[in-house]
Amino acid sequence: MHIIENGNVAAALGVLLCRVNVIAAYPITPQTPLTERLSEYVESGEMQAEYIPVESEHSALAVCIAASSAGARTFTATSANGLLYMHEQVQWAAGARLPIVMCVVNRAVGAPWNVWNDQQDSISQRDTGWIQMYCSDHQQIIDAVIKAYWLAEKVSIPIMVCYDGYILSHTYMPFDVPDQEKVDAFLSPFRPDYALNPDQPANLNTVTLPDVRMDVRGELAHGYMEIRYLLQEEMRTSLTVAAEAEKRFADIFGRGGDPYIEPYLCADAQYIAVGLGSLTYQLRVSVDVLRKEGIKVGVMGVRFYRPFPDEALAEALKGKKGVIVFEKALSYGYEGALVSDLKSALYDHLAGTGVMPMVQNIILGIGGRDIRTEDLTQALRAAAKSRVSRQPVWIGLKL
Amino acid sequence: MQAKTTILSLPTQEFVHPGTRACTGCGLAIAYRVGLKALGKDTILIVPPSCLTVLQGLFPIASTKLPCLNVTFASTAAAATGILAALKSQGKTNIKVAAWAGDGGTSDIGLQALSGAAERGDNFIYLCYDNEGYMNTGAQRSGTTPIGALTANTPFKGKLQQKKDVPAIMAAHNLSYIAACSASYPLDLFDKIRKCVDMPGTKYIHIHIPCPPGWGYDPRYGIKIGRLAVETGYYDLYEIVNGEFKLTAASEKLVEKRKLIPVREYFRSQSRFKILADTQIAEIQHQIDAKWAGYYKKDE
């Protein structure tokens, strides 16, 4: 069914369709309309779930961690400082290998206080062991939530579905809401191999030693390092599983594409703008303008940020003259996190081949600073001409 | 009123394997062993970092025979909420949820989550085992360390502030059941857990836990010191049932006896109080006497 709604409602509908058992949330702008909508579904009886209005984001994820450990499908959502307050639990959920899905409605972090959009919040959680998906429109939000549950439960790794605050969360767009029967065909009920159960008592997440240790039967059990190695290995494997998810999704719902990247006019492009989220759709407008001027540019949206689709990106970008990475977040003291990751991928896959593109980094839209399409166009035009020596380049700055 | 459990009627089934990693003479080992007997098999436990994390053992060997979720320090009560929500969504109504946290994990870092769960009225038992400090990390002060106690981070002057009264904080949440217990009176703990287990909402049980390394005494005297805390009127055993406060067990008997052991004996039994001056002890004795005068008056 096609409807016109905002991005938060798209996410809420995805959660409803996935028959989530336990939802825990603490209010923070711009996430609130999403969780308010979920409380409406639960209170009205439209959704058979437990909705827990917790007293903090730390507890929101604590509820999800415990409920998931007891075998429930769980959901939470947050933004900005809420996500930062959760940070300990974010790490814990990944270490405990729980398939929690969380929407991060991207917002700038304090100090100073700022409620507007950038992506510093989710980018700062890059190294926590969560899969991160970025959405560019409302259709991608609802679809990503559905895909996320399938993937998370397949690989036992939690997933953040990230979308830009206000730009997506509060704007209205048409999108298709899949039929419940199709979602049920795509996603089976959550039945974990193991859940807390008095008939099979186990002590979960106990102190684990640096080295391996024998259990009472004399069998070697993992040490902390083995457990963490497996998280890394299975994160890498989840790239393949994500492709499987995308294919299954396309088979059932009739839409989808590349699970990792979303290219626009990239095939013959000499210069490619790269970014995360809604910005890449805005960049398409600039690409159209520059194409008319005869400048061969394209845009590449990165839909999967962790695990990082290094190979897919290197393959798509090889032989290009330049890559310009636009970011609404940065690793203070260096550059954008995405550009660092991308350069590393290019080095790994293309070093010495002679097809390595020049890479530039543009920081913009921090704390909701207006991103004008003219500025994007001008920045791309300039980047296509020559590389500025001092990187990253900030645009829209009024100093 | 239920019959009092005796050492002969205590269930023989054990839920803690012998050979835990608790210190010799640990009061928690007693309270935990007896407490799990009261909770029984169909229970899911939640444990934040604390001495209990150590007692429970190192992966892949655990000393507890009940399912247990180890959680982050500040999240104990919220985790209880999460397990309850999962059980409810699965239609499992016969499984109890019990959180066991230390005094730091309760009175300090875990208080927000505990207050949240209690305010929501989530149906579980929260047991705070109070050894009056961060004993697991080397005996630093906590919110419930008593005034005058030397700790690893109040090394010369002792703690200058009063002990935080967590049961009173929980009483402000209008819980169906609150109790103060002691590891030195394990059968009283057993009966109190059994009494509240089917009561609605959040139940809070505070357990005074003598700690040989943290309090500074020979391990063999732990039970005696825990009893002294009660017999001097310094730590009271009581319950608050639907808002009604009542002294129980040994403390109740002290009201009849009208005679308390001087608190000096309690303080002089532990090296952590060695800098407590006679004048300070006299002042604390005065506070105890005033508190008990109130109890006597109520009894008349």
Q: What is this structure, in a nutshell?
A:
With 399 residues, chain A is an alpha/beta fold.
Explain this structure to me?
Chain A has 2 domains: 185 residues, Thiamin diphosphate (ThDP)-binding fold, Pyr/PP domains (Rossmann fold), CATH 3.40.50; 134 residues, Rossmann fold, CATH 3.40.50. In chain A, the strands form 4 sheets. In chain A, strands 3-2-4-5-7-6-15 form a 7-stranded mixed β-sheet, with helices on both faces. Chain A has a 6-stranded mixed β-sheet with strand order 12-14-13-16-17-18, with helices on both faces. In chain A, strands 1-8 form a two-stranded antiparallel ribbon. By secondary structure, chain A is α/β, with parallel strands linked by helices. Chain A contains 12 helices and 18 strands. In chain A, β6, α6 and β7 form a beta-alpha-beta unit. With 300 residues, chain B is an alpha/beta fold. Chain B has one domain: Rossmann fold, CATH 3.40.50. Helix content of chain B is 39%, strand content 14%. Chain B contains 12 helices and 8 strands. An 8-stranded mixed β-sheet of chain B has the order 2-1-3-4-6-5-7-8, with helices on both faces. In chain B, α1 runs parallel beside α7. The longest helix of chain B is centred in the last third of the chain and has 22 residues. The radius of gyration of chain B is 18 Å and the shape is globular. The mean pLDDT of chain B is 97. The interface between A and B is large, with 48 and 45 residues. β9 of chain A pairs parallel with β2 of chain B, so a sheet runs across the interface.
Mean pLDDT figure of chain A: 97
Give the largest interface pair and sizes: A-B, 48 and 45 residues
Number of helices of chain A: 12
Low-confidence stretches of chain A: none
- Which strands sit side by side, in order, in the main sheet of chain A? 3-2-4-5-7-6-15
User: Going across the major beta sheet of chain B, what is the strand order?
Assistant: 2-1-3-4-6-5-7-8
- How much helix, percentage-wise, in residues of chain A? 40-55%
Radius of gyration of chain B, whole Å: 18 Å
